[in-house]
Amino acid sequence: MAPVIVNHNSGARQSPLSDISSISSSLSLKSSRVDDLNQFIDKMLNVDASAASREGLDDFRQQQLKTGLEADSASYGERNWTHESNTGCDKGKATRVDVEEEKEAIVVMPLKQWNDDEARKSRHCDFNCQRNLQQVATIRKITVAFGIGKLLQHVAHHDSTISNYSWSQLRSMCSVDNFAVEFKNEGVLSESRWEVRQVYMINPFMSVQIDTILLSSNYYSFDIENDDGLNGRNVMATITCPFPSLCVNTMAEETSDCDRKLCHLLGVLLHFLFSENRSEQMKENGLLKEGADYEPSSSKAVEVDGPSTKKKSLDWFQFDTQCNLSHEPVDAGEDLYPLVREEEFSQAVSDVEHEDLPNHVGNIGRSRVNLPLSPLINFGYPPSLSKLVANLVDCGVGQFRVDAYTSLHEAVTDMQILLREPMLFLSMSPPSTIDAFMGSGKLYGRSNETASLTNAYNRVASSGKSEAIFVGGFSGCGKTRLVHSIFESVNIAGGYAVTQKFDQMQSSSPMSVVLSALNQLCFLVAQTTSETCLMDIYVKLSRAIGLTNVAFLTSILPNASELVPSHVTLPYLNSQYGINFNSLCFTIQHLMRVISSPLRTVLLFLDDLQWADAMSLKLVQCILCDVKGLNCLLFIGGVRENEVEQGHVLLEFFDALSSSDVISSRISLNGISPNDVNSMISDTLGVFPRLCKGLSDVVFRKTNGNPFFTLEFLRSLITRDIVQYSLRDKCWKWNLAHISAENIADNVLHLLTRKINVLSESNQTALKVASCFGSVISVDVVRKLSSTSQYSSLQKTLDETLVKEGFMDCDGTRYRFVHDKVREAAYGLIFDKEQYHFDLGMALQIVGGDIFAAVNQINRGPLSLLQDDSRRILIVNLNYEASIHPMDCSDFTTAYSYLNTAVSVLPNDSWTVHYDLTLKCYFRLAKAAYSCGRATRAQHLCDEIIKHGKCLEDTLETYSLLVSMICLARQDLLMAFKTCIKVLNLLGEDIPDTVVDTNSTVKKAKRLFQDRSSEDLLAMVDETSSRSIAIMEFYNHLVTVSFHVKQRHICLYYNARWASFCLTHGVACKYTSGAFVSFASILSRDLDEDARLACRISKTGMIMLSRNNSAIQQLPGVYAMHFMMVGSLTEPIQSAAAMSHYAYEIGMQTGNLSQAAFCLAIMMARSLYAGTNLLNLKSDLQVHLNSAKQHSQLILFANLVMMHEVVSKLIGDEEAESFQYLEEFPSTDDDFQLTLEIFSSFYLGHTERVHYKSKLWDRLEDSEKRKVPIRFIYTAFFSGIASFRLYSYGRKGSQTHTKNLAKSLSILERASGFSAWNYENKYLLLKAAHLSITDQNFNPENEFGAAILASQASKFVHEEGLACELAALHHLKHDNKALALTLFRQAKSCYKMWGSQVKENHIASLIEAIQE
Predict the structure, then answer these.
(1) Lowest mean per-residue pLDDT among 242-251, 976-985, 1207-1216
(2) Run of H or E including 468
(3) Which of 433, 886, 990, 1211 to pair with 136, CA 20 to 30 A apart?
(4) CA 772/CA 503 separation, integer angstroms
(5) Residue 429 near residue 324, CB atoms below 8 Å
(6) pLDDT of amino acid 1077
(7) What is the 3-state secondary structure (H, E, C) of 592-638?
(8) Within a 10 A sphere around the Cβ of 366, how many other Cβ atoms?
(9) Count H helices, E strands: the chain?
(10) Which DSSP string do the residues of 1252-1316 spell out, in sequence order?
(11) pLDDT: is 1035 or 1183 the higher one?
């Protein structure tokens, strides 16, 4: 039968049969099935049976076969034949083409011819090429075997008459001549990739389509675009059967006697396919001596010529793993194949029509003979394949062996395993250890968990909202491997996957774990992102946080410098640049915002969270809880749940995420199932799962399915030769009874300890040393220790023994334990752990090793027992030095740990003998404690410094820190107040205990400013005197405390004293701008000449601030004071909102949360006054409410809640909450709350309520209601308009309303003199309202029109709508409905732009009333 080339492009498919007439005669079918076959052939030929007579159809078929389907198989063997369509050649004819013009073609060939051609391809190649072709051919033959098995299985299960088939009929059905193979020819260049597509069975006629999916896994990699045929693949079979009677399952049971017979015949057929031509090839390549043969009664191995040929025969896949035969090997002298009954032998042996098989049949007994088939392993095939064929032949006849297949389904399943895991099951290399498999990364029994992780990642990528998943379970349950299993999918999806783990032995530097992961993320971004995208990232980042903070970012994340273009020079960070944990969080948040996106989602995996510290978790929390909601981050945390006790910081972390509405979920891992353990052991040993089921069941009972415990237990069995690989029989052997009787510990730790105990002393020492450093130890540390006499053999032992034995890995920069349990077992062997750590640390610091590694070891030692003061001082200095870098990088937790150790080790007389060292250790510890939230500890340390300080200069920094802590906590303000006065008096400032003569002090300061122009003030020279700067600093503290005390005369006095000192002594420093703006704020309370002076002073202070780069810490406070007070008289309200937002960002960057909160409240209030779209404003308020809640800023939270309620009511949200529940929050400013209530009531149309609230405002103390000019001005405006409305409604007290309107008009007139932009439109509106009730000659179009135009010019859309509304009401009152209607429509449009649905609906109702 000649090969057939199918026209792949034409859509017509040619029959794979060489002679149609011979088909019917060769089939032993019922007549009804012949018609079915003819119909099927018609379909394949794409010919309509009704269009031609049967004779004509047969002629057509014959012509097709004669002219179009003949192909020279010999020429085909030369590998350059293909089909060319539409080129002028006869349709369907095989045509030779050049290699460069090769095109895809489909070839169908009889099975035997196909098998011969497979052998012919590699006949004349060199050895390496031939070996590769043979490897690929084996994969293809197994694929064909899979197809044949599926066809036979289909017949066995669907043919109701199969049980009546004779042995001859079954033999004919399983004959090599009964099958054909269809494959894709991709041409000369890709010949080794020829892919099997279908397998045809001739009698009964049917086919199986084989679809192949290449597999990607962590344990072997490949390039899908350049598949060499050796990769794992999933194969799926689709049966096509033309006979309806063979499409219904008629078999009640899975197995039957006929099924076993078919297994046997399939085995004989496969033996033929794999062994044919193989003997000649082996002889040609020198793998078989001339004259050597395979006797039917022996199973001797292939004879090879020395070591060189051994390598050729064994290293078949060049993959060093152990995948071989089962636990029931054939004895050396026993025949491979079973004994069959004598009367069946002639039939069985005739199935193997092979010219190479000997005719001799030996050892014929009374009723049994040996089937003369030699094992496939003797032909150079892998043992697993040989075992599969042997177990098939073992079926169906004679006495059955234990390993014989019971059904075709089992055999087909094993073929699928061979194709799916060729590297594991088709290796010829004898196994050495299972380490290669243990590092493979393959996952078992976790499909549901993997799906959960993948779904979570997809949710984050689609929604843009971060999520957290916590994977819990005992050690060794596979948490790390589970998470790592989705990394490849993340990378393919374009995301970033980074991982780090916390270490029990490195708890003193926990922040480094999170920062290392983020540093790794920056590296991934730089490596995988185009230059254009990198520039975009840099631009967004620099705009968000500024170049200074970009420089700060690169100092803590070195790889972040890869995100900065090479031409950009970042500013130098001097010691004046203040950074803390809050600024770190702010910077990291912005980094994540610009790096992550739905297309570039980040997966951050931190393992062993049970060893994490609070600061690390807070940093993760700040990223996940980013109030902007722009971080596309999936955070996965691995945790040993059994090691998390009550009160653990991790529980607080869980609660914090929950309270911040971060979607969190948990995955708990237990042991895997018995079937999964079976699969794991099967893959590890390269044994079919059915053959190692007994072993896996015993192992499961011993390990409860813990994956790591399972592999370690198996490793121990192999190490002790309880499970062993027989090189003679090329199979694994074990004794189940012996394994079942094994008395092992109930956990892997004891198992590993026992394993380590048998090592040599030097190996144990090396493991102990490495275990003291945690799960990893750097190569540099190993080298330094190896340079000492005590640990001289450390590196050699690690490299030559422990890495090779699988205890540790090495990537060139560090050694890593393969599992935490290995480290725990090694660490458990140390008797005196504290002394062992101490000795290691001291040895390391002597040779100049990594100071952090040395100090971490020393600090684990018995420091409290040290008697030698010189050694104590050495340890103090080492800890102090180690604290410098983390302190500079805002890692205050780590710095606190080092400094706390240093202070605890100081000798008792340290304040006397080692004063300078003690002073700096105490102060830095107090600062670190304060930054870590340990306020009580910090205050105690400050008290100790003040107590033992020798002079004021030594304690100034401590006093400043102490006052800052008190002001931030708002605790004992009186103590802070007295402390500031005490220090200022010590510095030479005569500050009285009781404030007297405030007015004269204020007047003195005013004269000093009046006598100096703005140019003179800006020309002041920077101060260098530390004493003067210290005085300015403590005046700053004193004014801040006075502001919180809320006593106006005190605040006035100290503001004046501060400004006077600054001008009298000409002190220009980072505190000068604060002195100017603060003094200006107390002058601006009345809209008079003092206010104009205040405007000049405050503007000058703002200019000075912009020129002083060292005043970054002071900027938020100065901005807040300026824009809350004087700025409302000089700057447009919209600009005040924008600049307050800038100050808020700076406050967050520098970690000055209290001043940042102040700026935020001003920003939101100014946005409300400016007429910002209410819907956008509400969204921003919600974001900042969440932020205030996260940072426990209760006063800010209360202020934002009030504004959120006002905005919600104006929008029309009926569920807006009330101010009533604010009683649970700290008190806010009464004037601020009252102003918001008046604003809300006014626009909601509650005129009577506005009038009532205005009276409450008037009852406030004059100093209270005038302290913030913009509140005073706006209240006057709303009160005046309310009086106008009440007068217009004819309410009682018209004279009172007129006076109040006139009063308001006067205030707004003065205010507009300061800022026409902010107040001119309000003044004009009040003027129009006043004239409308007092002037008979009032021209409404001019006066109201001027107010409308002024509102438009200032971009106050809500006030434009108000002016239009009042003008329309006036015209409506005077029966000018047309003009009123026009103005109402304009007002409605304005309110719509503002976003107030309430006002829009109200105006719509008025329009409707007019139109009716």
Answers:
(1) 242-251
(2) strand 467-473
(3) 433
(4) 11
(5) no
(6) 92
(7) HHHHCECCECEEEEEECHHHCCHHHHHHHHHHHCCCCCCCCEEEEEE
(8) 5
(9) 63, 20
(10) HHHHHHHHS-HHHHTSSHHHHHHHHHHHHHHHHHHHHTT-S-HHHHHHHHHHHHHHHHHHHHH-H
(11) 1035
Angle between helices 915-931 and 952-969 (to 10 degrees): 10
Alpha helices per DSSP H over 87-160: 111-121, 127-158
Reported as a pLDDT band with limits 50, 70 and 90, residue 128 is low
State the Cα angle at 770 between 764 and 771, rounded to 5°. Answer: 85
Could you list the beta-strand ranges (E) of 689-761. 723-726, 731-734
Q: Where are the alpha helices (DSSP H) in 949-1088?
A: 952-969, 973-986, 998-1010, 1014-1018, 1026-1045, 1048-1065, 1072-1083
- Please state the pTM of the whole predicted model: 0.71
Helix or strand holding residue 105 (H, E): strand 105-110
For residue 508, what pLDDT band results from cuts at 50, 70 and 90? low
Task: Please check whether residue 434 is in contact with residue 684, taking contact to mean a CB–CB distance below 8 angstroms.
Answer: yes
CA atoms of 12 and 508, how far apart (whole Å): 74
Closest C-alpha to 578, from 1130, 1202, 39, 1112: 1112
144 pLDDT above the threshold of 90 = yes
> 318-357: b or e for each residue (b if 16 or more CB lie within 10 Å)?
ebebbbbbbbebbeeeebbbbbbeeeebebbbebbeeeeb
Q: Which amino acid is at 280?
A: E
- Alpha carbon distance 26, 1053 (integer Å): 119
Give the C-alpha separation, 188 to 140, whole Å.
17
Of 1400, 1366, 1368, nearest to 1381 by C-alpha is 1368
Q: What gap in Å lies between CA 1032 and CA 1111, rounded to an integer? A: 13
Residues 6+ apart with CB under 8 A from 502: 510, 513, 606, 607, 608, 609, 610, 611, 612, 616
Angstrom distance (rounded) from CA 584 to CA 557:
11
Q: Can you tell me the distance from the alpha carbon of 275 to that of 284, in angstroms, rounded to the nearest whole number?
A: 15
Q: Which three-class secondary structure state does DSSP give residue 723?
A: strand
Q: Three-state SS for 1025?
A: coil
* Of 73, 60, 61, 154, nearest in space to 118 by CA: 73
Of 512-526, 810-824, 1315-1329, the one with minimum mean pLDDT is 810-824
Q: Given the structure tokens 């092979």, which residue do they identify?
A: 354
Cis amide linkage into residue 375, ω under 30° from 0: no
The C-alpha atoms of residue 751 and residue 1138 are separated, in whole angstroms, by: 66
Tokens describing residue 641: 């749940």
Helices marked H in 787-866: 794-797, 820-827, 833-846, 851-858
Virtual torsion, Cα 616, 617, 619, 623, nearest 10 deg: 140
- pLDDT value at 335 more than 70: no
Q: Residue 46: name the closest of 104, 110, 91 by CA.
A: 91
Sorted by sequence, the CB contacts under 8 Å of residue 763 that are 6+ apart come out as 797, 801, 802
In the numeric block, the tokens 């059915």 are attached to 690
Measured distance CA(485)–CA(448) in Å, rounded: 13
1098 touches 1130 (CB < 8 A): yes
Find the DSSP H helices in 421-500: 422-425, 435-438, 447-463, 479-484, 487-492
CB 1154 within 8 A of CB 1338: no
Quote the longest CA-to-CA distance of the chain.
141
Among candidate residues 382, 226, 998, 1008, the one with its CA nearest the CA of residue 731: 382
Cα dihedral: 751, 757, 758, 764 (round 10): 120
Separation CA 1163–CA 1143 (nearest Å): 9
**AA identity, residue 549:** N
Residue 221's SS3 state is: coil
1409 exposed, middle or buried (CB, 10 Å; 0-12, 13-18, 19+)? Answer: exposed
